[in-house]
Design goal:
It is a single chain. The C terminus is likely disordered. The protein starts with a helix and ends with a helix. Helices cover 81% and strands 0% of the residues.
Length: 190
């Protein structure tokens, strides 16, 4: 769930918004009396809907084809997934404010995706990673999402158990959103 959402929710906004900048359609949007926050929300919210559909498909396949147990609460899991999707889609938005072409956006997406897979505990046990790799892994949204999904689905964790990881996701979301809005303003003025 976390891997598929990370890959698509970072790549799609980054490529789509960079394509708009390349084609010049972003200039039309910037001529409107909309704030950077409004523009960012308008660009990121559709991807949250797309991510929700992906999450439903992945969870459905996990349940009915692979018999993955669900010991926890679906509403809690969906709330956590929504925060995760928003945070990784915002990373895609941040990439689009830095990249000047779709090729650059794709390369930056891969530069984000590869450490996410290697340092999150998805491919290798997290506690087996060196200290510096664990420090980087803690700053990645997928690390916390994997812990949330494993906790809720496989251990029946409730909100108190996943709250620390939700807090980490919210901090990551706040930092990435702040960077994206700051970078977006500089692009508007320059």
């Amino acid at each position: 769930l976390g891997v598929i959402l990370t890959m698509t929710m970072v790549m799609l906004p980054a490529l789509a918004l960079t394509r708009e900048i390349e084609r010049g359609t972003m200039e039309n949007l910037l001529a409107l009396p909309a704030s950077p926050v409004e523009i960012m929300l308008g660009k990121v919210l559709p991807y949250i809907g797309m991510g929700a559909i992906q999450a439903l498909i992945v969870l459905g396949v996990a349940r009915w084809m692979f018999a993955v147990p669900m010991l926890g609460s679906y509403p809690l899991l969906f709330a956590m997934v929504a925060v995760f999707i928003f945070s990784v889609a915002t990373v895609g938005y941040l990439i689009s404010t830095v990249a000047r072409s779709q090729m650059q956006a794709m390369q930056m997406t891969i530069l984000f995706f590869m450490p996410s897979m290697l340092l999150s505990g998805f491919m290798f046990p997290f506690r087996g990673l060196p200290g510096w790799a664990q420090a980087i892994g803690e700053a990645l949204p997928i690390t916390h999402m994997l812990r949330i999904v494993r906790g809720i689905m496989l251990k029946g964790a409730g909100f108190p158990e996943v709250a620390p990881h939700l807090g980490s996701l919210l901090i990551i979301l706040l930092v990435v959103t702040t960077l994206a809005l700051t970078r977006f303003r500089r692009t508007l003025d320059a």
